[in-house]
Write a structure and sequence with these properties.
single chain, Immunoglobulin-like, three-stranded antiparallel β-sheet, mainly beta, four-stranded antiparallel β-sheet
Length: 158
């Protein structure tokens, strides 16, 4: 049995040194050559990485017609890709509510749908606003009103 194992091990070792080498060589007749340098992206999954930064709470001073905010996008994506961010209401019709469900209507302005200019960006800034009409302020009881906005990001073609 030991002889069989020794023979198998010898064969395995011989096969291990028989791996072909992919190399170019120079000799007396070919004194120059070229080699290719390239990146290996096989470990990258998907289209790359990105971050969208936006305020978790947006405070609006009472009776202010327009309050400006911003969101920022940083990305490192594959060539030909970009990030698109959509700022939207969660579906209740752009109304802030107080504890007794009274409404304070508002509109969104500015860049509520922003798209980066390319695959690699650092802190691309997009400005949007929350607008409350003066008649809406005048008709509302002074209270704390709130609503939820959704920030949705997707990788799109540039």
């Amino acid at each position: 049995m030991k002889k069989v194992i020794s023979l198998v091990m010898a064969l395995v070792m011989m096969m291990a040194i028989m791996v072909p080498a992919f190399a170019a060589e120079l000799n007396a007749t070919t004194q120059s050559g070229t080699a290719t340098v390239q990146t290996d992206t096989s470990a990258i999954t998907g289209d790359g990485t990105y971050t969208v930064t936006y305020p978790a709470t947006m405070n609006i001073v009472w009776s202010t017609a327009t309050t400006n905010f911003e969101y920022k996008v940083s990305s490192n994506l594959r060539t030909g890709k970009a990030i698109q961010v959509v700022v939207a209401d969660t579906g209740d019709g752009l109304n802030m509510l107080n504890a007794s469900n009274a409404t304070l209507a508002y509109t969104l302005g500015g860049t509520t749908t922003g798209k980066t200019t390319g695959p690699v960006v650092t802190d691309a800034t997009f400005n949007y606003s929350i607008n409350v009409d003066s008649a809406v302020w005048a008709a509302a009881a002074i209270d704390t009103y709130s609503d939820t906005l959704t920030f949705t990001s997707t990788v799109v073609d540039a």
